[in-house]
Each structure stands twice: as C-alpha cells, then as structure tokens.
Design brief:
Pantoate--beta-alanine Ligase, Chain: A,domain 2; alpha/beta; single chain; 270 residues; globular; six-stranded parallel β-sheet; three-stranded antiparallel β-sheet; Rossmann fold
Amino acid sequence: MKIILNNKDLIKKLNQIKDLGFVPTMGAIHDGHISLIKKSIKNCNKTLVTIFINPKQFNKKNDYNKYPKNISRDLSILKRFNIDFVFIPKKRDIYNYKRSKIIRLNKKDQILCAKHRKGHFEGVLDVMDRLTKLINPNKIFMGKKDFQQFILVKNYIKKKYNIKVIGCPTIRDKNKIALSSRNFLLNKKELFNASQIIKDLFNFKRKFKKSKNINNLLKLKKIDLEDRYKIKIEYLENRRINNFKKINNFNLSKIFVAYYLNKVRLIDNL
C-alpha cells in the first residue's frame, strides 16, 4: 500500500495506470468504507482510497472541527486490505485553483439535506469534481447511506467526465444502525437510541407497506419519535428513488430521515 501525500507524487504514481477504482472517504474508516474498497478491488485492477476531510461541505465550522480524525488508526485498518494507493492530500492540494463557474444546485434538488445544510452539496460536488479531475479514475465507488449525495455526485460526474459512479448498499451493525463516521461521536445511550429509532422506522414501513396515506402517517410518526426520544428531527419524508418526489405509498420509494442525537446529526434511508 503506497501512501501519497501531494499532487506531484499522485500524478507520478498513477501515470499509465489503467482500470483504476476510486473510493473517496473523509477518514474514520469503518466497515461501510471497507465494503466499498472490496467492491473496487473486485471490479478494478488498482484501487485508490482518499482521506480528506473537506472543509467546503461543512456549513457549520464547529461540525468540521468535531469531525472524528485519526489517520494512524485509519491507515492501520487500510493496510489489512489489498489497497494499492492511499491519497492523503492537504487543503492546498485540492483547492489549488479558483473555479471559473460556481456550482449551484437546481431548485428541484434543494430538498432533504440540501434544504437544511445550505452549501453542503455544492461543497461535495466541488471536491468530487476536483478529485476526479486529479485522479482520473475509471470507476468511483460510493455508499448509498447518503443517498441524495450519491445521486447528485453520480449525475454530475457522469455528465462532466462520463465516469461511472457505482452505488453500494448501506452497511448496518447488528442493531440496524447505518455505519457512519459520525457514530464515533455517540455514547452508548445515544447509540442505543439510534438503534431503537431505526428499528421503529423499519417496523413502521413493514406495518404500513400497503398504505396509501404514508405522508400523513409519517407526520404523526415524527411527533411520536421526537416525544419518545427527545430528539429533533429535521425531516422524515417518503420520496421516490428516481426523482425524489414525495409519494403517498411505498412504490419505488424510500423513507428519508435526518435527526439530532444530542448535537450529532444522523441521516438514513430505508
């Protein structure tokens, strides 16, 4: 596993490499990331993983400062797998030029996380554009836990670079919690509550799988969850997976949820 720390070495190492898989991460490596890495190794001749906590996608400075960071731990985990390259750039390596055109979301995309985290996805698309241009991979592997992010990046990269972004299933722990780097910020009680909340939503979906009144039922469920677990829910919505339009049944749709446990923001879809 070769560790690359700057753009010059990256270009040198990747010269003439064909069939490169790219797994973008912000570190705090967990089994969700490992599933992406394994998918890349299986489908590509070479695999590159990035560790870069992108400041542009945090709309709150405190959120960026609190994001879990442990490079030595991450590298010790990554060494167990047949990874070819790990790129750990600094901010100046990524943001080394000004964009000629500012990235803006379409009005139809300003829903869910985009509505509640102003500038977040613009920052995600900006860094993914810069990394893709720099690395020039054949395939990019991303998880579907951040489903809205996956779709936005997939469409943007496909249109600009004609590179395929492959979505991989959400990995959950034994208590049904979607694996996330933010989970490292939760204590035992908060992890327990997170497991109860997601189990509750899975049960809700099973119970009302044939209902045609999902939106009203979700409004009631939101009030119920906030009251029982003393949490703040940003959104709890049922939307189609192909166009994100709200729909009143579970036909080709997902429940999307974002909420705060203490001051840690968690998202999921099911």
